[in-house]
Amino acid sequence: MTLPRSRSRKPSSRVTLPDYLAHDLLILFVGINPGLRSAEVGHHFAGYSNRFWKLLNEARLVPIPVTCTDDWRLLEWRYGLTNIVERPTAGVKDLTAGEYDQGRTTLLARINRYKPRIVALLGMTVWDQLFSGESSQTTRQRGNSSVRQVGLQDKMIGSSKIFVLPNPSGRNAHYSYQEMLALFCELRSLIQ
After folding, report:
1. Most Cβ neighbours (<10 Å): which of 19, 61, 76, 133?
2. 183 DSSP assignment
3. CA 109-92-7 angle, 5° bins
4. Do 163 and 153 touch, CB atoms closer than 8 A?
5. In the chain, what are the domains?
6. Neighbours of 32 (CB within 10 A)
7. DSSP string spanning 11-43?
8. 139 φ, ψ to 5°?
């Protein structure tokens, strides 16, 4: 694992964030890939508009207020963090099919090795990349547009349940903050 040497340098595409994995996790949070800001500061979900940490706090998934600089502490509460693709980019449009293929293989191996109780996928892109070709089975109507189902899924990976959360990026306009918070609270209720 390589972290940025200087906070003022722009991260290269080789900078990666550490995975936080352990056996007996309650929840393994899986993002798409780190953003450039996260790579720059060396912490997950560090983008200025990313709502992951605020949602984690408000849903009371953690007993104390945490920010991106506390990402390593999630293991204290039996939560893990990883991404399907480790290379940081400005957006998902910069990722390749090959990176997703390699990431899928690696992620499935990690899930089967660590056996978290729940795998929380942060965004439908992660779902699509894990189960490409199967996502049409998880659609529902929402207003006038068709969106995929979020929440607890029928599908499992080994013994791990799958819970799909909206992507907490500030770029995600498909869900309001309150809708996201309700889903994070629903996730909390599954581990209590």
Report:
1. 61
2. H
3. 90
4. yes
5. 27-191 (3.40.470.10)
6. 23
7. PPTT--PPPB--TT-SEEEEES--BHHHHHHTS
8. -95, 155
Per-residue pLDDT of the chain (192 residues; tens, 9 = 90+): 434 433 434 444 457 899 999 999 999 999 999 889 999 999 999 999 899 999 999 999 999 999 999 999 999 999 999 999 998 888 888 888 899 999 999 999 999 999 999 999 999 989 988 887 443 333 333 333 334 589 999 999 999 999 999 999 877 668 999 999 999 999 999 998
Look up tokens 């995600």; give the residue: 172
Model confidence, pTM: 0.84
Tokens at residue 86, please? Answer: 């480790």
Beta strands 160-165 and 151-157: pairing type?
Answer: antiparallel
What does the angle CA 153 – CA 59 – CA 55 come to, to the nearest 5 degrees?
A: 85
d(CA 57, CA 54): 5
Q: CB burial class (10 A; 0-12, 13-18, 19+) of residue 168?
A: buried
Please name which of 116, 105, 192, 104 lies closest in space to residue 160, comparing C-alpha atoms.
Answer: 116
Cα separation, 126 vs 132, whole angstroms: 10
Q: Three-state SS for 114?
A: helix
Structure tokens belonging to residue 4: 């940025």
